[in-house]
Amino acid sequence: MGDKLKIKLSIADRVYPLNIRPEQEEGLRKAAKRINVVIKKFEQDYAVRDKQDVLAMSALQFAAEIEQNQLSSTSELQEAETKLVELSEMIKDQLN
Q1: What's the burial of 45, exposed, middle or buried (CB within 10 Å: 0-12/13-18/19+)?
Q2: What is the pLDDT of residue 35?
Q3: Within a 10 A sphere around the Cβ of 54, how many other Cβ atoms?
Q4: Burial class (CB in 10 A: 0-12, 13-18, 19+), 35
């Protein structure tokens, strides 16, 4: 295992110390920044001041985004599979 890196991330005005692998740092910092941007947007757009509410709304937004991406990926894979089956049938027909 590699050496652990100690970093501090600030999310919703709280600091979280983490021990991570160096290759995780960029992704975690970008994620924390994105979370803080979403929190600010919810606070401004909906005048929400309760951090728990804002964090819950942010979590819901991120989870919904992940679920939608998975549904889209599944749909795209099914469509690609259908096209491959059709192409395979066309090739078989041409070879016979």
Answers
A1: exposed
A2: 95
A3: 20
A4: buried
